[in-house]
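Input chain follows. Return structure tokens only.
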Amino acid sequence: MLNDGSIVRCALRGKIKKELQLKKDKLYLLDPVAVGDIVEIFLEKDNFGAIEKIKERKNYLSRKAPRIKGAGFRGERLEQIIASNIDRLFIVTSLKKPNFNNRMLDRILVAAESGGIESKIIFNKKDLANLQELQSWSELYSHLGYETFSTNALTGEGLERVKSIVQNGISLFWGASGVGKSSILNFLFPELNLKIGDISDYSKKGTHTTVTVTMMEVGENAFVIDTPGIREIAPYGIKKEDLGHYFREFVRFIPDCKFNSCTHNHEPGCAVREALEKGFIDKKRYVSYLNILNDLEDGIYF
């Protein structure tokens, strides 16, 4: 999209693509250009643009991509950039249809924290949820400093605050398949008319309807990004000794650990595990932490 609002189809010049893709370890990004990138283009004939420069990103959200068969990287994982220059991330989840998965939520939060992106959590399909369970999960994440919303995309319940937030800047909506990302956007902005998926009777999980990451203008200086539903995520580029810094409740205890490289798993003198035993850290969050830590150590993709 140009400054005047017109849309131009663009492609990255081959020379620049090679320069951007090649990394020191000779692995390659899946795509060096991401939705949200600010670029300089050379406007050619037939309203076609050649991307000549990608400006520095203020942030970006990424994950480990699934392994590519025959790529020859021997288990190494590529980085898949979801979007860049994001002002806020709305993580959309549900307690029923599909069932709530706190481990996936925590993985997305870690990916956002490591990218310096503000996260907000939407518990959609409130009408299907056990309200006591909904309140419990909402309070857990609210106490960690994340703004949470309990919503019903069919009626618009709980979406007033969401709509006021997305009136400025770039808002990314991300979450599992079937949780209602597109339904929420359709309620907020009916003119988008996004396709809505169903829940599989076999797997009880959502079916994919959005197949590409798409940024849409919804007002003056207001954009929303709709994303394909995810069923698996592993944060990219995080060292095991750094993971604890992306769990907010760990941060105040980490300086008191005996070892600077403590992974808060088995080391003696770990202040984080001591805080866990005293009830200052929720056990479900700690299990999520260990699950991600195992992923980082062994390369297992969940």
